[in-house]
Design brief:
With about 130 residues, the protein is α/β, with parallel strands linked by helices. It is built from five helices and five strands; from the N terminus they run E-H-E-H-E-H-E-H-E-H. The chain has a five-stranded parallel beta sheet with strand order 2-1-3-4-5, with helices on both faces.
């Protein structure tokens, strides 16, 4: 089972994501700050972190760097209003899995699950070698 951590002071931003998680059997928890999220990442294994780019207590690039220092294999998804090009430039080199709009819908979770399944398939093939 995939376990996700949702990070933003306002939990309601994740309502549609949570519905999508229920559709796909994804477990999740919520943190209202980057500090709380980083603490939770130290105590529990998560496969995925989804957070809004406007997280108030840390620069989003620094947040991703801190996440990766705790678990280099974790996938990150950022809710961002940036254009695709600007988003790529801002997060290049950090291995961000996906960009979601600021108000994501259930369909975004379906695309995310497809991506995670592709990654799992590649990892399984690599282990066979």
């Amino acid at each position: 089972m995939i376990n996700a951590l949702l990070v933003n002071p306002e939990k309601n931003i994740f309502l549609e994501i949570e519905k999508g998680f229920s559709d796909h059997g994804i477990g999740h928890e919520w943190a209202d700050s980057a500090d709380k999220a980083l603490s939770m990442l130290s105590d529990k294994n998560f496969d995925l972190v989804i957070f809004a780019e406007q997280i108030p207590d840390i620069d989003p690039r620094k947040f991703i760097e801190n996440i990766l220092s705790k678990n280099a294999m974790i996938n990150c998804v950022v809710l961002s209003p940036l254009s695709h090009k600007d988003f790529h430039e801002k997060y290049e080199g950090l291995g961000v899995l996906m960009q979601f709009p600021q108000k994501p819908e259930r369909s975004h979770v379906t695309r995310l699950v497809d991506q995670l399944e592709k990654i799992a398939g590649i990892a399984a093939k690599a282990q066979e070698l």
